[in-house]
Amino acid sequence: MADSTVPSPEVASTTSSSRNDIQRRLTFQPSPLHIQKPPAAGSTEKPMTFHLGEEVVGGFAAGVVGTLLGFPLDLVKTRMQTQASSPSSVKQRGPISLLSHILRTEGLTSMYKGVGPPLLSLSIVNTLSFTSYSYFRQNLFHGKDGWDYKNALSGMMGAPVFGLVTTPENFIKTQMQLDNVQVE
């Protein structure tokens, strides 16, 4: 009578194959979309590689997370900036009291009113920012790790385009955030 706790060779190979398949799926694979620049002849530097997929995912994730975490603070900032010029009798003293007033009177969902435009635009801007910085740093300016003026130039290259995307978004977002504000 065979011991039921010892798997047969067929079952053992299937289990091992399944484990290897799971490990392969969980292991990060480099993006197939990458540009590799070989080092100069006679150089001891390692080749520079630009992983487009990693830059896109990183930029998009940074845009989404940053927007969702910072949006309630942006709402409070916008309300504080506009309450100084409004003749409303209910003026808040600081950001914490204003935040609690908004939560009490307008509800939790109002903390994210107008989040759509910045969520879309900042995800796009961060994706473009990450990819353009990496591209310019490695292919145009050949920046090194750490502080280098070439890295600063690489970061500045995309700024004019980012302003064209974020300026209309900021206007729309501010209008949506002030939609519930009553001016007496």
Topology:
Elements: H1 9-26, E1 34-37, E2 48-51, H2 52-83, H3 95-106, H4 116-140, H5 149-156, H6 159-177
Antiparallel strand pairs: 1-2
Helix pairs in contact: 2-4, 4-5, 4-6
Describe this structure in words.
The protein is mainly alpha-helical. 62% of the residues lie in helices and 4% in strands. The protein has helices at residues 9-26, 52-83, 95-106, 116-140, 149-156, 159-177; strands at residues 34-37, 48-51. Strands 1-2 form a two-stranded antiparallel sheet. Helix 2 crosses helix 4 and helix 4 crosses helix 5 (149-156). It is elongated and about 70 Å long.
What brief labels describe this structure?
single chain, 184 residues, mainly alpha, two-stranded antiparallel sheet, 6 helices, 2 strands
What is the distance, rounded to the nearest whole angstrom, between the alpha carbons of the first and last residues? 90 Å
Pairing-aware structural class of the strands and helices? mainly alpha
Overall strand count: 2
Dominant shape:
elongated
Order of helices and strands: HEEHHHHH
Task: Write a short abstract of this structure.
With 184 residues, the protein is mainly α. 62% of the residues lie in helices and 4% in strands. Helix 2 crosses helix 4 and helix 4 packs antiparallel against helix 6 (159-177).
